[in-house]
From TrEMBL:
CDD domains documented for this protein: PLPDE_III_AR
Name of the protein in question: Alanine racemase
Domain Alanine racemase C-terminal: 697-821
Pathway: Amino-acid biosynthesis; D-alanine biosynthesis; D-alanine from L-alanine: step 1/1
């Protein structure tokens, strides 16, 4: 893109301050961490309840960014850059995209629906790419922010766009419609996803249809409700030549009527009638979601007037879509970012940003295949790629493919190979160690083989952590805070079992104010991992005081003995104003100063300049239990009294905090100046009504090691505690109580999920294995198994095991690898 800033002033109706309006921008960014930000970047400072990008502007100016769209100009950067001041920066981003979209007159496919948007988009891209230069949304960029970012990547060479639009409530589609303006509309499957945001299914469908105001054709699965909504929609937004192009398994009035569907060996043949002719199409899937998504694609191909033979030859090659970027542990202490399924310019930009945000090692390597469908000439494309690689400070590049090889000159420190096999032959000589490696290639290059060679071999059980879900949950709780209330996040016990350092890094980016850990060791490993945030240690032992000071951790002080011990060491080291946190016992009776020790506490602290009371805190015992809410109120009242006394007598004004997760939800009046978020960040609420607003963070996964069928009368496992009363198919899974799976969860109390179906645990859970009944499931060795996550949830496990989700989460052994993804 190349846009003159001058034009944008009127697009945004912005107020301009700065020197130079005659600047061209070629890049729009909302991510302050991106190394792609530079002098030609227009940085749009989004400002949510969660994370205010205005805070990063001075850093960005230092890095050379000159042009900003802002809602206000922060004091410290006045006069230092060009600013376009607008009322709402998100709206400006959307206006920019809508303006930019209008510069291109190309056909655009717009996809919406509850499920399948991203898959249908990826497949349409695959099916149409032999004939078009396609621009599409990267990954699932379908939100109020993702859609504009996708659309501003269109360039002159593209002759087809495919964009998806996702909404969660009413009045959102209007904005996205203006940006995508699809000429071809596709409504994918309408399920129950995001139902909370709508009054009923009709309202949800009508909202989604808003995307198709300018669409000349609308592809959808025919049913009564959708037909009805479409009739209303077409009456409200008439277009002279609009085609409703429908399909159905049951209604022969549909444009494409599916007469038959038969599955054999993972291949499904559908027989359909179209324009009075009958066709048999083979689809390489057996599950109904994939079949429906393929049919949506079929209709688009029919609309584009493809012959049946071409359709069949391309549909046969459809593949499961991997939609996310995964971080994996590699050999010799490397980390791998596995993006071995796509290679286009836009997704390379995203992957490089992700690489930067996830890098654990100083050194960065990229393994990259030829890039397809950029819309640029090869010369232009590889110049741009080389620029991107050098902006991102990549240390070495391994290029694979005839085209990228021919541009070797453009890449510093690069090695090129004609094909994947040649590289694999020589993989040893690269001596990969202590580096973060992005592996990014088009499907045809089969980079999954590279990933599997570079991946650390461990047993197959992993706990997958969804970093986006953590962000979502964080934002949810943050939105409940009054302005200026700070947030401490508890990352004790390895972030409640989910991974301490990775989560701390994410929280640091979200500008959390404090982290809380239980022991000094935990804080030290965070500091060693590069965390700069202040860290409070809840339970500092006196022996750890020297290292607490060495690593600048902040101790919670809960007794006179502890205070005096800390003061002694602090004085020896000549410290001044060292931050400490004073804990009050207001009824929990765990740690803290009680009422009768306050006077002595005050006497010790009065006039003391060695330490400074950074905060005063207390902990609630029953903030999750309505039956004891009166008790909470007493605790809060006592906290108010004790902390006020301390503040008056010492003449100090520290941070005060007493709410944990349930406290944030149930006692909004006691937020004081800070709250301490714990379990909620990890996706668990103690209140079922609130649970639906949180996203699942951890999914514990394993695989099937072996499958066997046993006859009636045989038993399974130690003690023969499962007796088969009929022929039974049994699968063995390599996870046991040593990994943290409670034995009480065995013997048909608990279950795992395989291929979206429940499989009961039969017999006793062993140390490293458990067995499940899979008689009703079509599965084989190597298939993936979900131990917990969406189903079962840790909440339902905890209920069955008569414990709390905290215990389930923190029990997962450290031998289980944690894998982080977005
Ligand atoms: C663990 C802990 C929290 C967080 O509690 P959640 O219920 O997980 O939100 C807050 N404060 C203290 C002192 C804690 O020990």
């Amino acid at each position: 893109m190349s846009i003159n800033l001058k034009n944008l002033i009127s697009v945004f109706n912005a107020e301009w301050t700065g020197s130079d309006t005659d600047t061209f921008i070629d890049h729009v960014s909302i991510d302050s961490r991106s190394l792609q930000n530079g002098s030609q970047t227009l940085f749009i400072a989004l400002s949510g309840v969660n994370n205010d990008a205005h805070l990063y502007i001075s850093e960005l100016i230092e890095k050379g960014v000159q042009n900003f769209v802002v809602q206000y100009i922060p004091e410290n950067v006045k006069g230092k850059a060009n600013f376009l001041v607008v009322k709402n920066t998100l709206k400006a981003l959307q206006e920019l995209a809508a303006y930019y979209r209008d510069l291109f007159d190309i056909p655009v496919i717009g996809l919406t629906g509850s499920n399948g948007k991203t898959i249908v988009k990826e497949w349409l891209n695959f099916l149409l790419s032999p004939d078009y230069n396609i621009i599409r949304s990267p990954k699932s960029y379908n939100s109020q922010v993702g859609v504009p970012l996708s659309v501003i990547a269109i360039n002159e060479k593209h002759n087809l766009g495919i964009f998806e639009a996702g909404i969660s409530t009413v009045n959102e589609m209007v904005n996205l419609e203006k940006i995508i303006k699809p000429s071809i509309g596709v409504l994918t499957s309408i399920g129950s996803a995001h139902d909370e945001g709508f009054e009923n299914a009709e309202q949800k469908i009508k909202e989604k249809l808003q995307l198709f105001k300018k669409s000349k054709v609308i592809v959808y699965q025919k049913n009564k409700l959708v037909d009805q909504c479409l009739a209303d929609f077409c009456a409200e937004y008439p277009l002279p030549e609009r085609t409703l192009f429908s399909w159905s398994f049951t209604d022969d009035l549909a444009s494409v009527y599916i007469l038959k569907k038969e599955t054999q060996d993972d291949i499904t043949t559908i027989q359909y009638q179209y324009n009075d002719e009958i066709f048999n199409l083979e689809i390489p899937f057996s599950d109904s979601a994939s079949i429906e998504n393929t049919i949506s694609c079929l209709l688009v191909l029919l609309y584009f007037k493809y012959d049946f033979e071409v359709i069949q030859s391309r549909v046969k090659l459809l593949y499961p879509v991997e939609m996310r970027l995964e971080v994996k542990n590699g050999i010799h202490n490397c980390s791998l970012i596995d993006d071995s399924y796509s290679s286009d310019f836009q997704s390379l930009k995203i992957a490089l940003d992700f690489l930067e945000s996830q890098k654990k090692n100083a050194s960065k390597t990229v393994i990259l295949s030829d890039i397809f469908q950029s819309g640029f000439s090869n010369e232009e494309l590889y110049s741009k790629v080389s620029q991107l690689i050098s902006d991102n400070k990549i240390h070495r590049v391994i290029g694979i493919g005839p085209t990228i090889s021919s541009f070797k000159d453009k890449f510093a420190n690069s090695t090129m190979f004609q094909n994947t096999a040649d590289f694999i032959n020589e993989i040893e000589r690269f001596d990969f160690n202590n580096e973060t490696i992005l592996i990014k290639g088009a499907r045809s290059f089969q980079f999954e083989e590279i990933v599997s060679l570079l991946e650390e071999k461990t047993h197959e059980t992993v706990l997958e952590i969804n970093l986006d879900a953590i962000t979502h949950n964080f934002n949810y709780f943050k939105s409940k805070l009054k302005p200026d209330v700070k947030m401490m996040v508890m990352v004790k016990a390895f972030g409640y079992g989910n991974g301490g350092l990775e989560i701390a890094k994410l929280l640091e980016h979200h500008k959390v104010n404090y982290l809380g850990v239980a022991f000094a060791d935990e804080g030290i490993s965070l500091k060693n991992g590069g965390i700069k945030l202040p860290i409070m240690v809840l339970n500092p032992e006196s022996t750890s005081f020297p290292s607490i000071i060495q690593y600048q951790l902040e101790p919670e002080i809960y007794s006179l003995k502890g205070l005096n011990a800390f003061l002694k060491i602090a004085r020896e080291k000549n410290l001044k104003d060292y931050p400490i946190h004073i804990k009050m016992d207001t009824g929990m009776h765990r740690l803290g100063f009680e009422n009768n020790t306050i006077d002595e506490l005050i006497a010790t602290l009065k006039g003391n300049s060695t330490v400074r009371v950074q905060s005063i805190l207390s902990h609630l015992a029953t903030s999750d239990d309505p039956q004891y809410f009166d008790f909470v109120r007493q605790q809060i009242a006592l906290f108010e009294k004790l902390s006020s006394k301390l503040m008056t007598e010492l003449n100090i004004n520290p941070i005060r905090h007493t709410l944990n997760t349930s406290g944030i939800s149930n006692f909004p009046d006691a937020q004081y100046n800070m709250v301490r978020l714990g379990i909620g960040l990890y996706g668990v609420s103690n209140d079922p009504a609130e649970q639906k607003y949180l996203e699942n963070v951890g999914t514990l996964k394993s695989i099937i090691s072996q499958v066997r069928t046993i006859p009636a009368g045989d038993s399974v496992g130690y003690g023969r505690r499962f007796m088969a009363d009929r022929e039974t198919k049994i699968a063995t899974i390599p996870i046991g109580y040593a990994d943290g799976i409670a034995r009480l969860w065995g013997n048909e109390v608990g279950y795992v999920t395989i291929k979206n179906q429940k499989a009961k645990i039969v017999g006793s859970v062993c140390m490293d294995m458990l067995m499940v009944n899979v008689s009703h499931i079509d599965c084989k060795e190597g298939d993936s198994v979900i131990i917990f996550g969406e189903s079962p949830t840790v909440i339902e496990m905890a209920a069955a095991l008569k414990t709390i989700p905290y215990e389930i989460m923190t029990s997962i052994s450290q031998r289980v690898k944690r894998v982080f993804f977005r």
